[in-house]
Description:
By secondary structure, the chain is of the alpha+beta class. The chain has helices at 10-22, 38-43, 63-73, 83-112, 120-140, 150-165, 167-173, 175-187, and strands spanning 2-5, 27-30, 51-53, 59-60. Helix 4 (83-112) packs antiparallel against helix 5 (120-140) and helix 4 packs parallel to helix 6.
Amino acid sequence: MRLLYSKPSPYSSKVRMAAHLCDIELDLVPTDTGAEGDQLTGANPIGKIPALILDDGSAIYDSRVICEYLDRRSGNLLIPQASDAWLHAKRIEALADGATEAAMAALYEKRYRPEELWHQPWIDKQWRRAHRALDVLAQEVGSLPERPNLAHFAVASDLGWLGLRFPEIVEEKHPALVAWLGDFFSAHPQYEALAPQA
Length: 198
Ligand SMILES: N[C@@H](CCC(=O)N[C@@H](CS)C(=O)NCC(=O)O)C(=O)O
Protein backbone atom coordinates (compact mmCIF):
# COMPACT_ATOMS: atom_id res chain seq x y z
CA MET A 1 0.00 0.00 0.00
CA ARG A 2 1.24 3.49 -0.82
CA LEU A 3 0.83 6.43 1.51
CA LEU A 4 0.77 9.89 -0.03
CA TYR A 5 2.31 11.97 2.72
CA SER A 6 4.80 14.66 3.63
CA LYS A 7 7.32 14.71 6.45
CA PRO A 8 5.88 17.70 8.32
CA SER A 9 2.25 16.55 7.99
CA PRO A 10 0.82 15.71 11.43
CA TYR A 11 -2.02 13.58 10.09
CA SER A 12 0.44 11.59 7.97
CA SER A 13 2.62 11.14 11.04
CA LYS A 14 -0.35 9.75 12.99
CA VAL A 15 -1.03 7.22 10.23
CA ARG A 16 2.64 6.18 10.07
CA MET A 17 2.76 5.61 13.83
CA ALA A 18 -0.47 3.63 13.61
CA ALA A 19 0.86 1.48 10.76
CA HIS A 20 4.02 0.81 12.76
CA LEU A 21 2.02 -0.43 15.73
CA CYS A 22 -0.14 -2.58 13.44
CA ASP A 23 3.00 -3.96 11.77
CA ILE A 24 1.71 -2.88 8.36
CA GLU A 25 4.31 -1.72 5.87
CA LEU A 26 3.54 1.36 3.80
CA ASP A 27 5.40 2.60 0.74
CA LEU A 28 5.87 6.29 1.37
CA VAL A 29 5.23 8.68 -1.52
CA PRO A 30 6.32 12.26 -0.74
CA THR A 31 3.51 14.50 -1.94
CA ASP A 32 3.31 18.26 -2.39
CA THR A 33 -0.31 19.26 -1.89
CA GLY A 34 0.38 22.69 -3.40
CA ALA A 35 1.03 21.11 -6.80
CA GLU A 36 -2.44 19.46 -6.86
CA GLY A 37 -0.91 16.67 -8.93
CA ASP A 38 -2.93 13.96 -10.64
CA GLN A 39 -1.76 11.22 -8.32
CA LEU A 40 -3.01 13.13 -5.27
CA THR A 41 -6.28 14.42 -6.68
CA GLY A 42 -6.94 11.06 -8.35
CA ALA A 43 -6.55 9.36 -4.97
CA ASN A 44 -8.20 12.03 -2.87
CA PRO A 45 -10.43 14.55 -4.68
CA ILE A 46 -10.10 16.82 -1.65
CA GLY A 47 -6.42 17.14 -2.51
CA LYS A 48 -5.13 16.64 1.02
CA ILE A 49 -2.72 14.23 2.61
CA PRO A 50 -2.58 11.61 3.93
CA ALA A 51 -4.22 9.39 1.36
CA LEU A 52 -3.68 5.64 1.31
CA ILE A 53 -3.70 3.86 -2.05
CA LEU A 54 -4.60 0.22 -1.60
CA ASP A 55 -3.15 -2.65 -3.63
CA ASP A 56 -6.27 -2.75 -5.85
CA GLY A 57 -5.75 0.92 -6.76
CA SER A 58 -8.61 2.28 -4.68
CA ALA A 59 -7.78 4.95 -2.12
CA ILE A 60 -8.93 5.91 1.34
CA TYR A 61 -8.78 9.15 3.28
CA ASP A 62 -8.77 10.99 5.64
CA SER A 63 -6.38 10.08 8.45
CA ARG A 64 -9.17 8.96 10.76
CA VAL A 65 -10.60 6.59 8.17
CA ILE A 66 -7.13 5.31 7.33
CA CYS A 67 -6.49 4.60 11.02
CA GLU A 68 -9.81 2.77 11.29
CA TYR A 69 -8.82 0.73 8.24
CA LEU A 70 -5.39 -0.15 9.69
CA ASP A 71 -7.06 -1.09 12.95
CA ARG A 72 -9.45 -3.48 11.20
CA ARG A 73 -6.69 -5.03 9.12
CA SER A 74 -4.59 -5.64 12.23
CA GLY A 75 -7.37 -7.24 14.25
CA ASN A 76 -7.87 -4.14 16.42
CA LEU A 77 -4.33 -3.59 17.57
CA LEU A 78 -4.72 0.18 17.32
CA ILE A 79 -8.08 1.20 18.75
CA PRO A 80 -9.39 -0.12 22.10
CA GLN A 81 -12.68 -1.91 21.60
CA ALA A 82 -14.32 -1.66 25.03
CA SER A 83 -16.88 1.16 24.87
CA ASP A 84 -15.35 3.49 27.46
CA ALA A 85 -11.80 3.04 26.19
CA TRP A 86 -12.94 3.42 22.57
CA LEU A 87 -14.72 6.66 23.40
CA HIS A 88 -11.73 7.99 25.32
CA ALA A 89 -9.32 7.27 22.48
CA LYS A 90 -11.59 8.70 19.79
CA ARG A 91 -12.34 11.85 21.81
CA ILE A 92 -8.65 12.46 22.36
CA GLU A 93 -7.99 11.98 18.67
CA ALA A 94 -10.71 14.51 17.83
CA LEU A 95 -9.30 17.01 20.32
CA ALA A 96 -5.71 16.66 19.15
CA ASP A 97 -6.63 16.77 15.47
CA GLY A 98 -8.99 19.69 16.12
CA ALA A 99 -6.32 21.73 17.88
CA THR A 100 -4.00 21.14 14.94
CA GLU A 101 -6.69 21.95 12.40
CA ALA A 102 -7.28 25.31 14.09
CA ALA A 103 -3.59 26.19 14.32
CA MET A 104 -3.14 25.07 10.71
CA ALA A 105 -5.97 27.36 9.62
CA ALA A 106 -4.19 30.25 11.36
CA LEU A 107 -0.96 29.28 9.61
CA TYR A 108 -2.63 28.97 6.20
CA GLU A 109 -4.25 32.39 6.61
CA LYS A 110 -0.79 33.92 6.46
CA ARG A 111 0.74 31.41 4.10
CA TYR A 112 -1.88 31.50 1.37
CA ARG A 113 -3.58 34.89 1.61
CA PRO A 114 -2.06 38.25 0.73
CA GLU A 115 -1.04 40.25 3.78
CA GLU A 116 -3.62 42.98 3.21
CA LEU A 117 -6.37 40.34 3.54
CA TRP A 118 -5.17 38.71 6.76
CA HIS A 119 -8.03 38.84 9.23
CA GLN A 120 -6.61 38.92 12.74
CA PRO A 121 -9.91 38.32 14.62
CA TRP A 122 -10.33 35.09 12.68
CA ILE A 123 -6.74 34.04 13.41
CA ASP A 124 -7.31 34.84 17.10
CA LYS A 125 -10.43 32.70 17.10
CA GLN A 126 -8.47 29.74 15.70
CA TRP A 127 -5.89 30.12 18.45
CA ARG A 128 -8.53 30.32 21.19
CA ARG A 129 -9.96 27.09 19.81
CA ALA A 130 -6.54 25.41 19.70
CA HIS A 131 -5.63 26.52 23.23
CA ARG A 132 -8.94 25.33 24.69
CA ALA A 133 -8.48 21.92 23.11
CA LEU A 134 -4.86 21.69 24.25
CA ASP A 135 -5.81 22.68 27.80
CA VAL A 136 -8.31 19.82 27.92
CA LEU A 137 -5.78 17.46 26.37
CA ALA A 138 -3.29 18.37 29.10
CA GLN A 139 -5.82 17.07 31.63
CA GLU A 140 -6.59 13.94 29.61
CA VAL A 141 -3.15 12.62 28.71
CA GLY A 142 -2.45 11.51 32.29
CA SER A 143 -5.19 8.91 32.00
CA LEU A 144 -3.88 7.32 28.81
CA PRO A 145 -2.93 3.65 29.25
CA GLU A 146 0.70 2.54 29.23
CA ARG A 147 0.41 0.69 25.93
CA PRO A 148 0.28 3.13 22.98
CA ASN A 149 -2.91 3.33 20.97
CA LEU A 150 -4.54 5.70 18.50
CA ALA A 151 -4.92 8.41 21.15
CA HIS A 152 -1.19 8.49 21.95
CA PHE A 153 -0.36 8.78 18.25
CA ALA A 154 -2.85 11.59 17.66
CA VAL A 155 -1.44 13.60 20.56
CA ALA A 156 2.19 12.85 19.69
CA SER A 157 1.84 13.71 16.00
CA ASP A 158 -0.30 16.79 16.53
CA LEU A 159 1.90 18.13 19.33
CA GLY A 160 4.95 17.29 17.26
CA TRP A 161 3.63 19.48 14.46
CA LEU A 162 2.63 22.31 16.77
CA GLY A 163 6.09 22.20 18.34
CA LEU A 164 7.65 22.31 14.89
CA ARG A 165 5.64 25.26 13.65
CA PHE A 166 4.98 27.21 16.84
CA PRO A 167 7.66 26.15 19.36
CA GLU A 168 7.47 29.26 21.56
CA ILE A 169 3.69 29.19 21.86
CA VAL A 170 3.56 25.51 22.74
CA GLU A 171 6.38 25.70 25.27
CA GLU A 172 4.98 28.79 26.94
CA LYS A 173 1.30 27.81 27.04
CA HIS A 174 1.34 24.02 27.22
CA PRO A 175 4.41 22.86 29.16
CA ALA A 176 2.62 19.81 30.58
CA LEU A 177 1.96 18.52 27.06
CA VAL A 178 5.56 19.18 26.03
CA ALA A 179 6.65 17.13 29.07
CA TRP A 180 4.20 14.36 28.15
CA LEU A 181 5.59 14.22 24.62
CA GLY A 182 9.16 13.96 25.90
CA ASP A 183 8.18 11.12 28.23
CA PHE A 184 6.27 9.35 25.45
CA PHE A 185 9.21 9.41 23.04
CA SER A 186 11.61 8.33 25.80
CA ALA A 187 9.41 5.35 26.60
CA HIS A 188 8.69 4.54 22.91
CA PRO A 189 11.64 5.85 20.85
CA GLN A 190 10.52 3.95 17.76
CA TYR A 191 7.79 6.56 17.25
CA GLU A 192 10.00 9.65 17.52
CA ALA A 193 11.41 9.07 14.03
CA LEU A 194 7.83 9.14 12.68
CA ALA A 195 6.95 12.49 14.26
CA PRO A 196 6.48 15.52 11.99
CA GLN A 197 9.76 16.84 10.66
CA ALA A 198 10.71 19.98 8.76
N1 LIG B 1 -8.99 15.80 8.22
C1 LIG B 1 -7.86 15.51 7.38
C2 LIG B 1 -6.95 16.71 7.33
C3 LIG B 1 -5.86 16.54 6.30
C4 LIG B 1 -5.04 17.81 6.13
O1 LIG B 1 -5.48 18.91 6.47
N2 LIG B 1 -3.85 17.63 5.56
C5 LIG B 1 -2.99 18.76 5.30
C6 LIG B 1 -1.54 18.38 5.54
S1 LIG B 1 -1.27 17.84 7.19
C7 LIG B 1 -3.12 19.14 3.85
O2 LIG B 1 -3.21 18.30 3.00
N3 LIG B 1 -3.10 20.46 3.57
C8 LIG B 1 -3.10 20.98 2.26
C9 LIG B 1 -4.25 21.89 1.99
O3 LIG B 1 -5.10 22.11 2.88
O4 LIG B 1 -4.29 22.40 0.87
C10 LIG B 1 -7.14 14.26 7.89
O5 LIG B 1 -7.30 13.92 9.07
O6 LIG B 1 -6.45 13.59 7.10
